[in-house]
Structure formats: C-alpha cells, structure tokens
Amino acid sequence: MATEVHDVEVQEGVVFGRGGGRDLRCDVYRPKGVAGPLPAALVLYGGGWVRGSREAVREQSRILAERGFVAVAGEYRLSGESRWPAHIQDVKAALRWMHANAASLGIDASKVAAVGFSAGAHLALLAAGTPGDPRFAGEGGNPGASEAVAAVVAFYPPVHFHMPGEKRSGASPATALAADLTAEEAEVAAPMSYVTPAYPPTMLLHGTADKVVPVSASLRMQEALNAARVPVDLRIYHGLPHGFPRLPGLMEVSMLDVASFLDRVMVAPERYVIDGTMPPGT
Q: What is the C-alpha to C-alpha distance for residues 275 and 161, in angstroms, rounded to an integer?
C-alpha cells in the first residue's frame, strides 16, 4: 500500500441509476492530483436494510481516497421504500455504472472492490458472488455492463438467514430482510449460497461482543471460503460490538487495514511476494 496520503476531492449527489421510479445517487471521493486509472471501491452503508444513507460512510470513503482509491459511496433503496430484492438491484446498478463509466471516472475496471458494513456488508458479499445473475439485475441502468468485483470487504456481515423457529449457526433472522420473506428467498439472498472457487478474495471484520450479527456469521463465512480455497482474511476484535469503527481510533485502524488488504489482493499483489528473502528494511 502506498504510504503517501492524498488530499481528497468529493463530487456529491451523482446519479448512477434509477430505482423505484427515482434517481439513485452516489458521492465520489477521489484522490486529488493522482493520474488514473485508479483502483476503486463501492462503499455500502449499514442500517438493517431499513435505515442508513451514503453520508454514513463518508469517513470510510475519505480514508480509502486518501490512500489512492476512487471510493463511490452509493445508495440503495431501503425496505420501507421497496421490498427485497430492490436493495441488491441498486447495488448491481452502481457496479454496472462504475464499470460502464470507468474511463470518465478514472478507474481501472479490473480493480473494482465492494466494501460494506452490516446490511451493506451482506449486499457487498452477495454482489461479489452473483455477477451477471439475472435475479438481482433489476433495471437500474447500463444493462450488459459488468457487475464483477475483484475483492470484497465485509464488516460484521449477515451471511445467511433462518426462518422463524429455526436455529442456524451464524444466521440472521429472515424477517429482518423482509417480514414475509419465504424460505426459498432467504436461501437465494444468502451470500454463503454463492461461495465457489471463483468467489473473489474476501476480508471479514467482526467483534466478539456483537449482539446484532453474531461473530459466528463471519466464522461460518470464513469456513465456506476456506473450503472453496478462496483467499480470505478474518479480523476478530475481542470485546467489540456491532459498529465498532465508530469507537475511538478504530475507524482509522480498520480502514487502513482494508486499504492494505485491497492493495495486496487486488491492486499490486506482486509487491507482497518475498521469494525466500526478507524485504529491504526488515
């Protein structure tokens, strides 16, 4: 990861697609004065699929842009406005927009990541495993453009669901996604359903004191990724609750870790090969 910290410029309220009969908007955070094409990340806020806004990921997006990424803080429709799967359809629309407009955005379309928090982490993981899946495409714009991500980062993510009365390790209640969600829809909405050897490199971050999404969710996702031989980094933070980046000092620490992970698996993996010798200065 580059050690230089860049100034950041922000373009707010950029329309990237349509959903529910209205414009969908994003904020684009860009390192000032850095020639492209640059790696990029779609950054998705949390809020249990019922609340949240792109303003909630300002700091996360700014830190990524300071480290050389074009960070796109994208919105998605919430459950009070549109029933599932509108949320993932809007995420797919944002990814297609980023790919279709890579040249004007100054991004490298082969180096687009998804970074999500809680409900946004669920959407990031689901998008990572379902590029081109017509069930989630929607009609948000740029049909035919790529929906692929080269890496995905998920903070305390819901990874699969249980129906009322069921118990499954690491599962979140299906009713949180939609009160009338069927068992079939719950399985289709579960990121763990799409783990294959083609799944992109993944980073999972979770606190052991999380009472919203159990830490076992990330553990089960890591197990599935390991079984498929997908590169995965897991960060377990002892004693920390859901939303821990808001606690003192943890936003900077965790997001710099994210930037380093993306640099290692997506941007410049060749920098991290030692070939039997220690890097200079170590």
A: 43
With beta carbons less than 8 A apart as the criterion, state whether 73 and 53 touch: no
Neighbour count for residue 205 (Cβ, 10 Å): 24
Model confidence at 254: pLDDT above 60 = yes
Give the CA radius of gyration of the chain: 18
Instruction: Select from 128, 96, 160, 147 the least CA-distant residue to 231.
Output: 128
Could you report the per-residue pLDDT of 22-62, keeping only the tens digit for each?
999 999 999 998 987 999 999 999 999 999 999 999 999 99
DSSP 141-171: S-TTS----SEEEEES----EE-TT---TT-
Question: Averaged over 159-185, what is the pLDDT?
Answer: 93
For the whole model, what pTM was predicted? 0.94
251 contacts 257 by C-beta, under 8 angstroms: no
Q: Which pLDDT does position 256 carry in this prediction? A: 97
Tokens of 132: 């081109």
Q: Is 238 helix (H, G, I), strand (E, B) or coil?
A: coil
85 contacts 76 by C-beta, under 8 angstroms: no
> For strand 107-117 and strand 38-44, is the pairing parallel, antiparallel, or unpaired?
parallel
Dist. CA 136–CA 152, nearest whole Å: 18
Q: What angle do CA 251, 98, 40 make, to 5 degrees?
A: 35
248-257: long-range pairs with CB below 8 Å, 24+: 251/59, 251/60, 251/63, 252/63, 254/155, 254/205, 255/59, 255/60, 255/63, 255/64, 256/1, 256/63, 256/67, 257/203, 257/205
Quote the tokens at residue 245: 């980046």
